[in-house]
Design goal:
This protein is α/β, with parallel strands linked by helices. The chain is built from 16 helices and 24 strands. The strands form six sheets. A seven-stranded mixed beta sheet has the order 3-2-10-9-8-11-12, with helices on both faces. The chain starts with 13 loop residues before the first helix and ends in a 16-residue tail after the last strand. The structure holds 2-aminohexanedioic acid.
Length: 553
């Protein structure tokens, strides 16, 4: 492998440019081309997708150069306007097995590469991402319907993660410990673990993979990625951008692998596969339980990042303007489809009316529409199924005695006829309602009144999930109580800022049904490595620990 290749003219797209993108392969490809070329999307936005899937179909399996797939075709439509985007061919279980064989071989090579040199590869990957930030964001925007600003934020999160991982590659510290035996030295070292299975959700189709993949790479692991089938194209796009970096450095195939497949086939194969010592999975609680049971049964490791049901407490001392702005972004960003989305606001009864009126005013100013257009705050939900789940939750809310204060309608007319656009909803609810305890992956915000701080903290914790939480207060004692051992029970606890938008530098994850895993920054890397305690005797004698005498001639 060469590690000194300059990133210059070869930006990773050379092989894509030489792809015979204009060739048509079969009638499905022709239809795809015609319909996408007629689409309303700007020229710049088509370029990366065209270069990747210009033939109308792309394989969902790959380990370093080509993609292939022996499974069924997965037709991708944009939630923006229901137009076809591409066809991704699912990986078959045999494709998965072939990839695991390759990644096992690649791991044998990669683990012996010095960590800072592994970091250099991630640095080059970061450079490619920087260069293609806009292009890649556009694919995300079109495939999952995030606003352009948020999609660019997602790619930025990958870039930040790459930078972090480069630094980390020189900081995989082990401790040195005093030995009780003279002439002995004890230390801990961290060794690569093996191929890491990464299962990601549609809502952060790239960033969550980067949290795992870049850390795994510098730790000396290889990665097999099963993206959400709802975001398969974004996954193919980023792999096709990144693989050439590995090629240019003469690295073997199998370091970064892609397997687009269904949970029952590829997911099942992965979680039962003893060659995958760690599975990091983001998704539903139900999926997390299955992963934990199967991987736990073979005594493998998991990192689980599951649902959230994140609450914000707004105390009487809070700056209401600040709280309203933060709550609006936290509840509406990504159309309410973040694990960290604000789903509940506990507002002191005295400021409830002011707060809700001011929040409704800010919701009224929202621009809902095509997320590719500048100035749009909220795009579509991922699909009609998500819209139905939102409507069902609102019905349950009403059945349980709650009321809708604002929004909650399904929009129609123009691109809204895709059936994926809604107005975000503000509802009045009580903490004990069953629907409030559930995570509905949609922009529904429950406002709940409280009288005492104890009551607010108890309500915050009275849900199965424990991902993110926040308090808005200008009162030091309230902030400290919220951050104390008796306060928030979540993996993330913020003061005067919302529950979303965590920076990558901290470890990300939550407790209870949120899964307990930690990813991204801080010392989350330790889960991706094998800890080894080493004792070296340099004394020429054999003193035994715990003072044991064992004398034989
Ligand atoms: C997720 O929704 O799964 O903190 C991840 C945030 C983002 C990541 C969310 N940085 O909102």
């Amino acid at each position: 492998m060469r590690l000194n290749h300059p990133i210059g003219a070869g930006d990773g797209l050379g092989c894509l440019r030489s792809d015979p993108v204009a060739k048509k392969r079969g009638s499905m490809g022709t239809e795809f081309q015609n319909r996408t070329q007629n689409g309303p999307l700007p020229r710049a936005g088509r370029s990366l997708i065209e270069r990747i899937v210009g033939e109308g179909e792309v394989g969902g399996a790959g380990s370093g150069s080509e993609t292939w797939g022996h499974g069924d075709p997965l037709r991708r439509f944009s939630p923006i306007d229901s137009r076809p985007l591409s066809v991704v061919r699912w990986a078959s279980v045999q494709d998965y097995r072939d990839i695991v064989d390759r990644t096992a071989t690649a791991f044998g090579v990669w683990r012996m590469v010095p960590a800072p040199k592994r970091g250099e590869i991630v640095r080059q990957i970061g450079t490619v991402l920087r260069r293609h930030k806009r292009d890649l964001a556009e694919v995300v925007c079109r495939e999952v319907g995030k606003t352009r600003a948020e999609a660019e934020g997602e790619v930025q999160e990958m870039i930040d993660m790459a930078d972090f991982a480069v630094g980390l590659s020189r900081m995989l510290y082990g401790v040195t410990l005093p030995s009780e035996r003279s002439g002995h030295r004890i230390y801990e070292q961290w060794q690569p673990l093996g191929p890491v299975g990464v299962i990601t959700a549609f809502n952060f189709p790239l960033a969550v993979w980067a949290w795992n993949a870049f850390v795994a790479l510098v730790c000396g692991d290889t990665v097999i990625w099963k993206p959400s089938s709802k975001a398969a194209l974004s996954a193919v796009a980023v792999m096709k951008l990144i693989w050439p970096v590995l090629k240019r450095n003469d690295l073997p195939d199998g370091l970064l692998n892609l397997v687009v497949g269904s949970g029952p086939s590829i997911g099942e194969a992965m979680i039962h596969d003893r060659r995958i010592p760690l599975v990091s999975a983001t998704g539903s609680v139900r999926m997390g339980r299955q992963v934990a049971a199967a991987v736990g049964n073979r005594l493998g490791r998991t990192i689980l990042e599951l649902g959230g049901n994140n609450a914000v407490i707004v105390t009487p001392s809070a700056d209401l303007d600040l709280a309203v702005r933060a709550v609006a972004f936290g509840a509406i960003g990504t159309a309410g489809q973040r694990c960290t989305t604000i789903r509940r606001v506990l507002v002191h009864a005295d400021s409830f009316d002011d707060f809700s009126a001011s929040l409704a005013r800010s919701y009224q100013q929202l621009r809902i529409g095509n997320p590719l257009e500048d100035g749009v705050h909220m795009g579509p939900l991922i699909d009609a199924e998500a819209v139905n789940a939102m409507q069902a939750a609102l019905q349950q809310l009403k059945d349980q005695g709650g009321s809708i204060m604002y929004g909650g309608q399904v929009l129609s007319g123009g691109i809204f006829d895709s059936g994926t656009y809604v107005t975000p909803c503000i509802a009045e609810a009580r903490a004990e309602m069953p629907i409030v305890r559930e995570e509905t992956f949609a922009p529904i915000l429950y406002l709940i009144r409280f009288r005492t701080m104890e009551e607010a903290v108890a309500a915050l914790k009275a849900v199965p999930q424990g991902l993110s939480s926040a308090i808005f207060t200008n009162h030091l004692l309230e902030a400290e109580a919220f951050l104390s051992a008796g306060g928030s029970d979540c993996g993330i606890a913020n003061v005067n800022t919302g529950t979303t938008g965590a920076e990558i530098g901290g470890a990300f994850g939550g407790e209870k049904d949120s899964g307990g895993g930690r990813e991204a920054g801080s010392d989350a890397w330790k889960a991706y490595m094998r800890r080894q305690t080493v004792t070296i005797n340099w004394s020429r004698k054999l003193p035994l620990a715990q003072g044991i005498e064992f004398n034989v001639d």
